[in-house]
Write a structure and sequence with these properties.
The N and C termini lie far apart (85 Å). The protein is built from five helices and 21 strands. By secondary structure, the chain is of the alpha+beta class. The chain has two domains: 103 residues, Immunoglobulin-like (Sandwich), CATH 2.60.40; 139 residues, Immunoglobulin-like (Sandwich), CATH 2.60.40. A hairpin with a 2-residue loop joins strand 8 and strand 9.
Length: 336
């Protein structure tokens, strides 16, 4: 059985998938979650020539041939596009795994920026990182182009924490493999996007290029995850040392569905200050107008003549046209 087959997603193409009978299954992987699958001569209960096993919202499915020389068709809806897979039973040409790249953001297709490192090679590097100690003992020359750092760091999130255990650099591929441990101390299952891992070194952020992770943190658990960073987002070499002070991030499902917090709008300070000055100016103008409109009192008559009388009210108060501000009021606007 051939180990890997890689295809780049493109509408209009028909992809041949060779499936073996009675000896293993063929795993077909897409960059992220598949929307829908429909098939001809394919079923989930084994009633047709091909049997499929898939989970709702999954990014992969397994195929097995149940009849010699069988042929069938799968229609896969991914990223709002439709792709056709032509299934053929052939023991000699059968694939163990088929990886589709391209057509989405954040999945294995990101390796297109890595300067030719294939998804299969990235997964192989992850496998080498898992067995690093054993390989170093038995085949040290295979790791002569690598460098390892076991400096640990812990990153606390709202509902879980991420522990960075080690980083291994494969210089030829310009790829770093990160091994992390995800701790869920809550009593609820936490789902996360396993294609959302990223690291920050200095003031630059590097997205993952491949991952080996479950996407689920069971309650009260600690689960391992591996992911790779290859090159830079611009397609150049990153030349990152594994002992950098990395900051690691990942997106959990609850982060994407958290309600928005509405912050009450604060009054504009400048506007409020202007309103206060305007009120003071208005009060000052009104007082001055009243003072100038009321004539100065005449010599006070005898006290007995004014007894019980109200002061006279002027018949007319004069108002100015403010198209030209009165010069005698200019002192009132010195604050502007």
């Amino acid at each position: 059985m051939n180990q890997f087959q890689e295809y780049v997603l493109a509408q209009g193409e028909v992809y041949k998938i060779y499936v073996k009978k009675d000896d293993g299954v063929t795993t077909v992987t897409f960059p992220s979650a598949i929307s829908k699958i429909a098939g001809v001569n394919v079923s989930t209960d084994g009633s047709t020539d091909f049997q499929i096993s898939a989970q709702p919202g999954g990014y992969y499915f397994n195929l097995a041939a149940l009849k010699e020389g069988a042929a069938g068709t799968l229609t896969v809806v991914f990223n709002r596009k439709t792709y056709i897979l032509y299934l053929m039973q052939d023991n000699a040409k059968a694939f163990a795994a088929v990886n589709f790249t391209g057509g989405s953001g954040g999945g294995p297709e990101a390796v297109g920026r890595s300067g030719g490192v294939t998804p299969a090679r990235l997964l192989s590097l992850i496998d080498m990182a898992k067995a690093y100690d054993l390989l170093m003992q038995r085949y040290p020359t295979e790791l002569r182009d690598t460098k390892r750092s076991t400096a640990r760091a812990v990153f606390q999130f709202e509902k879980f924490r991420l522990e960075l255990l080690e980083v291994i650099r494969f210089h030829h591929e310009d790829t770093l493999v990160f091994k992390v441990l995800l701790h869920n101390d809550t009593d609820e299952e936490i789902l996360y996007d396993k294609f959302s891992f990223s690291v920050q070194a200095g003031n630059r952020t590097y997205p993952m290029s491949a991952a080996d992770a479950t996407g689920v943190m069971p309650p009260q658990s600690a689960t391992y995850a591996f992911f790779t960073v290859t090159g830079t987002p611009e397609g150049r070499r990153n030349n990152l040392a594994p002992d950098n002070d990395f900051k690691v991030g990942v997106t959990a499902q609850y982060m994407e569905t958290a309600p928005l917090t509405v912050v009450p709008e604060q009054p504009d300070r400048a506007e409020a200050k202007m309103d206060r000055h305007l009120e003071k100016l208005t009060d000052s103008v009104e007082k001055l107008l009243v003072q100038q409109a009321v004539p100065a009192p005449a010599a006070e008559p005898a006290e007995e003549e004014n007894a019980g009388k109200l002061p006279e009210t002027p018949e007319k108060i004069e108002w100015w046209d403010f198209s030209e501000f009165p010069s005698n009021l200019a002192f009132l606007i010195n604050w502007m």
